[in-house]
Design a protein that fits this description.
The complex is a heterodimer of chains A (194) and B (570).
Chain A: H1 3-17, H2 20-32, E1 48-50, E2 73-78, E3 94-98, H3 106-111, E4 116-120, E5 132-134, E6 139-141, E7 148-150, E8 156-159, E9 171-174, E10 177-180
Antiparallel strand pairs in A: 1-2, 2-3, 3-4, 5-6, 6-7, 7-8, 9-10
Helix pairs in contact in A: 1-2
Chain B: H1 6-13, H2 28-32, E1 51-52, E2 66-72, E3 78-79, E4 84-86, E5 89-94, E6 98-103, E7 109-113, E8 127-128, E9 132-134, E10 137-141, E11 146-151, E12 157-162, E13 177-179, E14 182-186, E15 197-202, E16 208-213, E17 243-245, E18 250-254, E19 275-280, E20 286-291, E21 307-313, E22 316-324, E23 329-336, E24 339-347, E25 354-357, E26 364-366, E27 377-380, E28 394-396, E29 401-407, E30 410-415, E31 435-439, E32 448-454, E33 459-466, E34 474-477, E35 481-484, E36 491-496, E37 502-507, E38 517-521, E39 524-531, H3 535-548, E40 559-564
Parallel strand pairs in B: 1-34, 3-8
Antiparallel strand pairs in B: 2-40, 4-5, 5-6, 6-7, 9-10, 10-11, 11-12, 13-14, 14-15, 15-16, 17-18, 18-19, 19-20, 21-22, 22-23, 23-24, 25-26, 27-30, 28-29, 29-32, 30-31, 32-33, 34-35, 35-36, 36-37, 38-39, 39-40
The chains are: A alpha+beta (194), B mainly beta (570).
């Protein structure tokens, strides 16, 4: 049963039964779910961005590491306090790329930092990792079904079967550090269940 | 699912049965010799024959067969699992690892288990091929790589054991194999850089008993067939249930492709990829093996377990192992005191890769221009989905025939590219857009086939053809019938076992990629199958529509169908 179903089911029971025990159980529902460990949390405001532990040289990525004209860098959010990279949630995979600030549409520019944009690296079609890059068109490409996304325009789909854009992740630069400025703009993940 | 809330959710979510739940426990003896009216494991018997001796429904009356009841499963994607039936209690599994317990006579739902899957689960095969039964428990292997034991009477979770970490590309779709109180499973993930294995767990406690990798580590037997670190993410998944020979306590498992797909990046034979391995169920030791083809480059998983059948070959009775290969070859092997021996191999579809097969060892030689390679586009036949994919064949001891669902007149091209291992990501070395499937001119006539092979004669005796490709698992019965679906017209059919003539068909809600079974209650015979198209059948349809310029609509959504002869109460 999905988490969402749990909650719906629970609310219906509460309304129908007005049952104290039922209420107690329903109220207990969120509490019963232990908070995920830091490595499984979604991006938090103020998180750093880092390459994962399986990278040849795991490291925090700063603004200067994201070079104009270079292919995207795959990163995960990192808790700045504990140094834990949140790489135990696949949906946290993020694509970082630097574009010409003048090429960004206004909505994308608002989420960017010095031309650096960030998007979920999980395709909205079947949940594959978006790992390919067309250097000419400057589009992300999913290797599974060739969905193509334009990072200058909110990662809108420009080709392929993906039903919606890649969710965007707002960025900011403070004290020379590249940081997460907010949550993903939409649900991350594919359209179909696993 | 929240452990604390489990009783609350199960009690309220289950539809209470009208009658008290009675349940006949499954014993080791019953698994070895199931009653004719029951279907207690994946292929009904340990020999994987997929044969029911029931004969009330037969070639003389099957035209009267009607649907008696149906159940919507509420799930999309591929419904491949056989309904298991134990003295009137039926169990089916569906995609997302849902399990339903059903009164096999009335169709009343007794309980339902739903699994909460991780939101970030990524795997390639949203399906499940069935549960296993032992004692008063139901076992399911999950796509997030857990083994779960349920109470057969209530659906309550008794224990769940993590088998592997799904974040590293491990997932499970097979029905477990239960032998002597051990529950055995294998892993999927041949496209995600796993190192394949078979693992056994104690049926009572869920404790791990042994784990046998299908890719040897350095120093282990067979490790000389891998170079450098290629073994670490060498694939060789085991995603189909093994067969078992109680006389020798050996289980026989088919293994999948080595990874990544391009063979040039992992030179060597790559044991135990694309093989059958004989595994001692007590220790997990690999006692013997036969590699169908070495250094696979075609994604020809040979993962269907061989059918154990005694037959006459060259004038003597042999304890056979029969495997219908994805390579398009029908392999005839032998169980001997010295291990697995080679008898013969015959192509059952057009195949242009093997140039010869060594008469003594069964080792094929390859046409070098048909071997996919990094940086090249290479064409070969049959397609990477093979002459036959996972849908199991059936063998009828009544006719001595093997019934084999095949796909003819299709070829493939693959273009290899370098690939880097990233945990849980595709590790194929062929971008999906560079995987091609194309028909030969003869495909205008047909693609799908149901073939019957006389094992003693070593030859094909009939072929029934379909315009559609065929993904239909097969059931053979003592009524002289063969049941199978698998085509994109949504039909489920009964064939005359001797001639292949279609005697009956029923159009269903979706494409039938489920394993059909037969069972009996109080002397009345039933046929049951799940209809629910998806996964590779759907993907291949998409490829074929592209090749033919067609648009085929096979709706998704699973339904269990139960058929019987009219005129008796149920």
């Amino acid at each position: 049963m999905s988490g969402a179903d749990d909650i719906r089911f629970c609310a219906a029971r509460r309304r129908a039964l007005e049952n104290l025990a039922g209420v107690a159980l329903c109220v207990a529902l969120p509490a019963a779910e232990a908070a995920p460990p830091p490595a499984k949390l979604p991006p938090q405001v103020g998180d750093l961005l880092a390459t994962p532990s399986w990278d040849e040289q795991p490291r925090v990525i700063g603004p200067a590491d994201v070079k104009a004209g270079a292919a995207p860098i795959t990163v995960f959010p990192q808790d700045p306090t504990s140094g834990v990279t949140r790489e135990k949630l696949r949906l946290n995979q993020i694509l970082l790329v630097r574009l010409d600030p003048k090429a960004l549409d206004s909505a994308t520019a608002a989420l960017s930092a010095e031309g650096i944009v960030a998007y979920a690296g999980t395709c909205t079609h079947t949940g594959c990792g978006v790992t390919d890059w067309n250097a000419q068109s400057r589009h992300f490409i999913c290797p599974c079904h060739s969905s193509e996304f334009d990072p200058a325009k909110g990662a809108v789909r420009v080709a392929g079967p993906a039903p919606r854009p890649l969710p965007a992740l707002p960025l900011k630069i403070e004290d020379g550090k590249l940081l997460v400025a907010g949550g993903f703009s939409a649900r991350v993940g594919g359209a179909k269940p696993a | 699912m929240h452990r604390l809330l489990l009783p609350f959710l199960l009690v309220t979510a289950a539809v209470p049965a009208a009658e008290p739940a009675t349940y006949t426990p499954i014993t080791a003896q019953r698994l070895e010799q199931p009653e004719p009216g029951n279907w207690l494991m994946y292929r009904r018997t340990y020999d994987s024959q997929g044969y029911s001796p029931l004969d009330q429904i037969n070639a003389g009356n099957v035209e009267k067969l009607v649907p008696l009841w149906t159940i919507s499963t509420g799930m999309e994607e591929a419904h491949q699992a056989p309904p298991l039936v134990n003295d009137g209690m039926m169990f089916i599994s569906t995609p997302r690892n849902q399990v339903l317990a059903i009164d096999a006579r009335t169709g009343n739902i007794r309980w339902r288990y739903r699994r909460e899957l991780p939101e970030d689960l990524f795997q390639l095969h949203p399906t499940n091929r069935g549960v296993a039964l032992f004692g008063d428990r139901v076992y399911i292997a999950t796509v997030d790589a857990f083994l779960v034991a349920l109470d057969a009477k209530t659906g309550e979770v008794l224990w769940e054991q993590q088998v592997e970490d799904y974040l590293n590309g491990y997932y499970m779709t097979l029905a477990p194999l239960v032998v002597d109180g051990k529950v055995m499973v294998g892993t999927s993930g041949g496209e995600l850089g796993v190192r394949g294995f078979i693992q056994a767990f104690d049926a009572d406690s869920g404790k791990s008993l042994w784990k046998t990798f299908t890719v040897p580590a350095p120093g282990e037997p067979g490790s000389e067939t891998w170079k450098g670190d290629t073994w670490k993410h060498g694939g060789v998944p085991v995603w189909m249930t093994g067969s078992y020979d109680p006389a020798t306590k050996l289980s026989y498992w088919g293994t999948g492709n080595a990874g990544p797909w391009m063979a040039d990046v992992r030179p060597g034979d790559n044991l135990y990829a694309t093989s059958v391995i004989a595994v001692d169920v007590n220790t997990g030791a690999i006692k013997s093996h036969h590699q169908y083809h070495w250094n696979d480059a075609w994604d020809w998983d040979e993962v269907v377990a061989p059918i154990l059948v005694d037959f006459k070959h060259d004038g003597r009775m042999v304890k056979g192992l029969i495997h219908e290969g994805r390579s398009g070859y029908l392999w005839m092997l032998e169980r001997t005191d010295k291990g697995i021996g080679y008898l013969d191999a015959k192509p059952f579809v057009k195949q242009n890769v093997f140039t010869s097969i060594d008469a003594k060892t069964g080792r094929p030689s390859y046409d070098p221009v048909r071997i996919p390679h990094t940086g090249k586009r290479v064409e070969f036949c049959p397609s990477f989905w093979g002459g036959k994919d996972w849908p199991p064949s059936a063998y009828s001891p009544q006719t001595g025939y093997l019934y084999l669902p095949a796909n003819e007149n299709l070829c493939s091209a693959l273009t290899g590219e370098p690939v880097k291992y990233v945990p849980g990501q595709l590790y194929m070395g062929v971008p999906i857009p560079k995987m091609e499937v194309f028909p030969t001119p003869e495909a205008k006539d047909h693609i799908g086939e149901l073939q019957a092979w006389d094992l003693a004669a070593g030859k094909k005796v009939w072929t029934t053809t379909f315009k559609s490709h065929n993904w239909g698992p097969v059931l053979a019965t003592g009524g002289g019938l063969v049941f199978s679906g698998g085509t994109n017209d949504r039909n489920f059919r009964a064939f005359d076992a001797k001639t292949g003539k279609i005697l009956w068909q029923q159009r269903t809600n979706s494409g039938v990629v489920g394993i059909p079974v037969s069972y009996a209650i109080d002397g009345k015979q039933y046929i049951a199958v799940q209809s629910g198209w998806g996964v590779d059948a759907q993907r291949k349809q998409d490829f074929l529509d592209k090749a033919f310029g067609t648009k085929t609509n096979v709706p998704q959504g699973g339904v269990l169908w139960v058929f019987g002869l009219p005129g008796t109460t149920h």
